[in-house]
Each structure stands twice: as C-alpha cells, then as structure tokens.
Amino acid sequence: MLNNEFDLSDPIQPEPINGMKAVIADFGGAAKWYWRTATRGFVPAVLLLGVVPLFVTTVVLASVTPQRVKTPHEIRLEAKAEAASRVQEQARARAKAKQAVWKEEAKREEEYKRLAPIMSQEFVTRRLKAPATAQFPNSCGDEVLTTRLAYGKFMIASHVDSQNSFGALIRTKYICIVRKSGGDQWLCESVILDE
C-alpha cells in the first residue's frame, strides 16, 4: 500500500504512518484527499496536519453532538408559562382599554358639571313669576355650588334675583336637581325655591 491508496473495507491499515492512516480512513472521501495531498507535498504538511484535522474534528463533533430532548413535563411548563404570559398581556390590554374609557367618561362628566348650572338656571327661570327679570350669578363662581349625585346627575344650589308680583327685586335661593339625558337633552328632577 505504498501507492497511497486505501482499502476502506479493512478499517485497520497494515502500515500506519505515525498512526494517521487508521484515523484518516474513518473520515471517508475527505480523508482520502487529505492523505493524498499531504503525502504528495501539494500543501505544506504542517498546515495540513494542524488546520485540517482541527476543522474536520470540529465539524464532525458539531454534527454528532446529540440535541437535548425536552421532557413532557418541561413542555407542559413552557406551555403554561406561555399561556400565563398571554393572559397577562390580555389583562394589560383590557386595563388599558378601561382606563381610556374612564378618561373619556371623566371628560364628559366635567363637561356635564360645567353645563349643569346653566341648565338649572333654565329650569328655575320657568318657575319664576317674572322670568324676564331673572339675574343669576356667574355659573362658575363661588355663589354656585354644584354637587355630583351620580353619573350625569347633579344638584345645584344657588340664588336668583328677580321681581316679585309687586315689582320689587328679591333674591330667591334655590336647589335644582338636573340629569343629563340622551343627546343634548337635560331633565329637571326637582326644583325647590326658597322665597
């Protein structure tokens, strides 16, 4: 076997050169090329004996390294963790949507609170003897007390200056409960005038 040919049917070569022939025979076709090149002197033997075996060993070990198989228990744990993560994400999305709704309702409620005293003035004016002479304080001032009773329902306590049946200007305190109805509608639930 001095002509650099291998008999691959016999894994143990009769004439190993420094033990390399037997090791190279296990690698198949790439090993034949390596052996032929190294023995003919096409590539410096130092390079081939140092780099190629390291590369071949790395490739062989990387392809032969067994992958770890997950146990059914580990698979169930991963599935539970993923499901819990999805549930938490859905809960965060629901909380964010609720918060957006609450902010929108709070804006509407502030608008209703601003409009309630103006609407109460309308309902009180209808009950006066001389509605054309009614003078109300500023609806945003300290003389008007607006209390929220429920969503869209307010109690307004204030006063109105108007003429009585004799033409004298008198101050009348009032309490009016108004409620926001659908659209632009407001309903008066009660009006109490204290003359």
Task: Summarize the structure in words.
- By secondary structure, the protein is α+β, with helices and mostly antiparallel strands.
- It has two domains: 1-65, no CATH class; 77-194, no CATH class.
- Helices cover 48% and strands 19% of the residues.
- The chain is built from four helices and four strands, in the order H-H-H-H-E-E-E-E.
- It has helices spanning 20-25, 29-40, 45-64, 72-127; strands at residues 145-150, 153-163, 169-180, 186-194.
- It has a four-stranded antiparallel β-sheet with strand order 1-2-3-4.
- A hairpin with a 2-residue loop joins strand 1 (145-150) and strand 2 (153-163).
- The longest helix is centred in the middle third of the chain and has 56 residues, at 72-127.
- It is rod-shaped and about 130 Å long.
- The N and C termini lie far apart (131 Å).
- Mean pLDDT is 78; it is low at 10-14 and 16-26.
Give structural attributes:
single chain, 195 residues, alpha+beta, 2 domains, four-stranded antiparallel sheet, 4 helices, 48% helix, 19% strand
